[in-house]
Amino acid sequence: MSIRAVKRHDVSRPTMEGAGVRLRRGFGFGETQEFDPFLLFDDFRGDHPRDYAAGFPWHPHRGIETITYVLAGEVEHGDSLGNRGVMGAGDVQWMTAGRGILHQEMPRGDSQGRMHGFQLWANLPSRLKMTAPRYQDIRSADIPTVTDDDGTAVRIVSGEFWGRSGPVEGVAADPRYLDVSVPPGKRKRLKVEVDRHAFAYVFAGAGQFLGASQPFGVLTEKEGPDGEEILVRETVGNRSLVVFDRGDEVIVEAGPEGVRFLLVSGRPLEEPVAWHGPIVMNTEDEIRQALADLRSGSFIR
Ligand code: FE
């Protein structure tokens, strides 16, 4: 067993996106190596319509997947291929943009004015960048929750965990997307295969991620000078992004209010990244082609 050290942690930064949506960015644009196969993570929790009502009007995507997880309120979605839908609290939409979609995503608050959710972008490998667009709309009720003896509850959106599998399938980067709730004061060990990049994003309560004392590499528990377990405490609360180093498990200890966080991991693609807004390809030539396709009206096929 080797514990994944906390490489760093950071609070997500206020950003403006779409037609004027105030959100917070965990990471994105120019941080592709550390998070590969993930490109961007946005926290769009807002408690007043003025923060989000402008929404994300028509825009293109190519070469990536976008994963939207709604916690409160609704997101109305429509695209140029005729797909339409509304995501509600607890629902997930896994959109494989592939060779191209043009869509809009319009947030609507709940009765208390809240619109809460997250969007993650996952990169597609070169062989799938021009694949046919695909939607997986997952209703809250279809996302399995597994509960451990100590009350820890894990919603499995994608990937395998504790012997169960999430409903999202056929995703190239084989990502694992978990929504983890650890009860007050409990310590939990969560496995994350060693060949994956992993991060956590805390969105309720607070907790400590226990990392190896050395800020680099893997420290086996038995590698302390006297064979003792060496752990360093990292307290993080709401809106904290925690980036893990290599290892095969994450250890978290919940504070007095418990802690809830997304735990996301994926196998790196290790391919060149050419990034232009919502279009992410391997080469600048492919970006130029995408922009030419947009201009000539052949982006959607
Ligand atoms: Fe979009």
Structure description:
The chain has 301 residues and is mainly β. It has a single domain (6-296), classed as Jelly Rolls (Sandwich). Helix content is 6%, strand content 51%. The chain contains two helices and 26 strands. It has helices spanning 32-35, 284-296; strands at residues 2-3, 6-11, 13-17, 21-28, 38-43, 56-61, 64-72, 74-79, 84-87, 92-96, 101-108, 116-123, 134-138, 145-147, 153-158, 160-161, 164-165, 176-182, 187-191, 197-211, 219-220, 232-236, 240-244, 249-266, 274-276, 279-281. Strands 2, 14, 15, 18, 19, 20, 22, 23 and 24 form a nine-stranded antiparallel β-sheet that branches. The termini are far apart. The model is unreliable at 213-222 (pLDDT under 50). It binds fe (iii) ion (FE). Fe (iii) ion binds next to strand 6 and strand 11.
Number of domains: 1
CATH topology category name: Jelly Rolls
Helical element count?
A: 2
User: How would you name the CATH homologous superfamily?
Assistant: Jelly Rolls
Indicate the percent of residues in helices: under 10%
What's the total number of strands?
26
Overall radius of gyration: 19 Å
CATH architectural arrangement: Sandwich
- Arithmetic mean of pLDDT: 91
Which structural category do the helix and sheet elements fall into? mainly beta
Shape, please?
globular
Please summarize what this structure is.
This protein is mainly beta.
Characteristic terms for this protein:
single chain; 301 residues; mainly beta; Jelly Rolls; 9-stranded antiparallel beta sheet; 7-stranded antiparallel beta sheet; binds fe (iii) ion
What secondary-structure arrangement, pairings included, does this model have?
Layout: E1 2-3, E2 6-11, E3 13-17, E4 21-28, H1 32-35, E5 38-43, E6 56-61, E7 64-72, E8 74-79, E9 84-87, E10 92-96, E11 101-108, E12 116-123, E13 134-138, E14 145-147, E15 153-158, E16 160-161, E17 164-165, E18 176-182, E19 187-191, E20 197-211, E21 219-220, E22 232-236, E23 240-244, E24 249-266, E25 274-276, E26 279-281, H2 284-296
Antiparallel strand pairs: 1-21, 2-23, 3-4, 4-5, 5-12, 6-11, 7-10, 7-12, 8-9, 8-11, 10-13, 14-15, 15-18, 16-17, 18-24, 19-24, 20-22, 20-23, 20-24, 25-26
The structure holds fe (iii) ion (FE).
